[in-house]
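Quick one:
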Amino acid sequence: MRIHKEGYPTLIISFLVFALIAFGAWMLGMPTTPLVILIVAFDLIWLFLLSFFRLPKYDLAQVDNSKILAPAEGRVVVIEEVEEPEYFQGKRKQISIFMSPANVHVNRNPISGTVKYTRYHKGKYLVAWHPKSSTENERYTSVLESYDGKYEVLVRQIAGKLARRIVNYLEPKQVVKQGDEMGFIKLGSRVDVFVPLDAKVTVELEQKVKGGITVLAE
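Output:
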């Protein structure tokens, strides 16, 4: 199993902290049974962190740019027509994906094209499925324009109650490839995708999707 590069600092630091605490408890004479329970608890927490930062080897979908791929793994929680005020300042179709701590948290480019806009917003840490999390939580907005310039897709990475760090690798004017990494969100979180009104949504509410594989719209 591969580990994402964002996970190495957390895994190394947590391992050292757990080891020092366990060693200190042993040096202070903690009885065997409580010491074993402590070590097992640390092992389980560390294995959870290891699983969270896993990077499975997927056969990413290589599709034409008429199809918009899911930028994240998780469950579809919103499909609706909304007003997008930050960039488009008009109506778009919104597809939202909730990422639980058990999901792979790598975010991928939904289309190939050029990065038109990126912006980080400080904010709250409402639970990721809260209706206002899209506009009030800490978030990072990216807009990609298709190679032919015919349409744009907005991807908004949103921090949740547990997620306290959003990583985004994109820069304005950067040329990107569909399915490549665009960022990473630590712990439970959400990703909103805004597509043109004439796009045909190909997923349903509560459907489980995989980043870089599932087609969200075309």
